[in-house]
Amino acid sequence: MPHGAAAALIVAVDPGELPTERFGMLHRLTVAQWATVRDACCELRVMAPGSVFSRKGQPLSESILLVDGLIGRHVANRRGQREMVAIEVPGDFVDLHGMPLGHLDHDVTVLSESVIAVFRHERLKKLVDDDPELAIALWAMTLIDAAVHRHWSFRLGRLATMARIANFLCEVDTRLGLSGRSDASGFALPLTQNDLADACGVTPVHVNRVLRDLREGGYCSIRDGRVHFIDRDALYQVAEFDPSYLYISSYDL
Amino acid sequence: MPHGAAAALIVAVDPGELPTERFGMLHRLTVAQWATVRDACCELRVMAPGSVFSRKGQPLSESILLVDGLIGRHVANRRGQREMVAIEVPGDFVDLHGMPLGHLDHDVTVLSESVIAVFRHERLKKLVDDDPELAIALWAMTLIDAAVHRHWSFRLGRLATMARIANFLCEVDTRLGLSGRSDASGFALPLTQNDLADACGVTPVHVNRVLRDLREGGYCSIRDGRVHFIDRDALYQVAEFDPSYLYISSYDL
DNA sequence: CGGACTCTTGAAATTATTCAATCGGGGTGG
DNA sequence: CCACCCCGATTGAATAATTTCAAGAGTCCG
After folding, report:
1. Which nucleotides of D are covered by protein (CB under 7 A)?
2. A23: helix, coil or strand?
3. Rounded to a whole number, what is the distance in angstroms from the first to the last CA of chain B?
4. From CA A103, how far away is CA A120, in angstroms rounded?
5. Which residues of chain B have pLDDT under 50?
6. How much is the pLDDT for B13?
7. I need a surface site. Which of A213, B2, B174, B192 has the fewest CB within 10 A?
8. For B157, which of A143, A156, A158 is closest by C-beta distance?
9. How many Cβ atoms from other residues are within 10 Å of residue A20's Cβ?
10. A156 touching B, CB under 8 A?
11. Which residues of chain A have pLDDT under 50?
């Protein structure tokens, strides 16, 4: 398969493989709500990195939950300028907003090999029609998404590049931590410097230099698709990271 | 009253003054839905510019709809750095997301004298519990909010400053146009250059220079709190503005 | 081995910020 | 009533941050 192609489902998996335990942002649902939602899943798929799950404007009839891996959402203009406007970690609904809206304003791209759970809109619609509490819970999950967007605007508009990249890393660390995918030594982050540049609104060359500064400044280093903390507290400090926008305290942990 | 103080309700108005006709984003509701929502309004208020409607973290029991004026939402950190992460125009629900979430991750500030309609969460909750279609419609309105956030991330991350400021102006023009508040000559925009700087992630000094470039480049000028088009098409061009992210085509006009 | 992609570094050019100063209008206190 | 003050707008000059252009090294893969 040619590199960078808009590839393709690798393999379909039995939806029974979907964890019965909540993980990540799914902790916002009660145990009963997750059981209800989980039952509505029609399919599990494994997707290859580089594949495009859906494109801006395309009519949608299903939404997906990320079970494992990393997915990005990108806004692009005609000139091919691309900005990553969101990154999804396990436990996130990637495009639940496609259900009320019908189509998306951005592309959805698989950043690293991912397992996704597919939900047909008609079944989700029935769930929320029948259960106003569940509707509010799912609504709230999309609203946290929006809160993260706001934080990204703040990060892009007001933080200097070192703080900006550090802040991005802290967010991913914190969100991955919600599903046990981060520990005191660091976390897996299989992104290229190009991806980081897309997410942080700078050029790849500049990302490279700032990562060196973070490394030489004793904050963290990135090697082999993994962030290694050198001084985690210092990193959070230089990032000016305050996780309150993630609304984690209101999770049902 | 001291200048810049966190002031104050000017006057309460009879909720009967709330228009029976839909305006702006409210066109996304059906006529019947708007009648239902409108009935749930408990109060109309006029607020002075500079007053803070609500602050990050503060528990909320009501949400507001902007009827007239301009309202900004700001994210700030401890160091006092402030970024405007959203601007609200008439017809927008300013903090509907406060209902499912309970508190906000940002401040809500009145940018110019505004009329707001107040809705108690308990009444909104009852509306959405009783009417799944209305719930989805309100949900979708908050999702368009998120789509605008994504566009702001794109704008901040990928557009050069002139395109960035122009793009901001085009967005406000388009959104104000939905309630007849913009015409071929321009539109009222009672913001300071400082506000523009907050919204576009640059310094006020730089905003000033770029506004001069826009003026001398024959795009638009800002005088007396009003944007005057010199060449509206050229402005939209230099802004690389594509309004699809506003989901206007799916309005019930 | 060739090709594609990623990471890395240097140097020059460009963009944006910072610091400093001026100007004008609107409102305030004397 | 008027001098004063604050704020917003404006400009210049020096400094700092970032991009652009160019080149080279390492790696993976067919």
Report:
1. 6-13, 17-22
2. coil
3. 43
4. 14
5. 1-7
6. 75
7. B2
8. A156
9. 9
10. yes
11. 1-7
